[in-house]
Write a structure and sequence with these properties.
Layout (H helix, E strand, L loop, with lengths): L1 H18 L24 H11 L5 E4 L2 H4 L3 H13 L3 E4 L4 E5 L4 E4 L1
Parallel strand pairs: 1-2
Antiparallel strand pairs: 2-3, 3-4
Length: 110
Amino acid sequence: SNNSREHQRQAIEKYVAEKFYGCEYELDICEDVCSGRSPFSKRDGYMQILPSMLSGEYDVLVLKNISRFSRSPACCVDELARLAAVGVKVSFIDENVHLRGDGLTYHLHT
């Protein structure tokens, strides 16, 4: 729903403002109106920002919760591995899970 998307957007904006306070950053929010079950290739918003993450232009991905990223464990692990390979950090706000890619694997930071 629009209310849910707005709530997610506000949570991400607040998280980024707090975590990156005093830093220069560019916040680009993409939205996909679909189920967490949808494959990444069917998510227009995600596919739009993916090249920027793979090229190193964007190095942090923040999501409200892990179910917004993927509800398929296999797809989630595969996509996280692809992002880790290029050093993208991923944070899931609700779960307080912060993953930092080193080019090979992710390490959990709390």
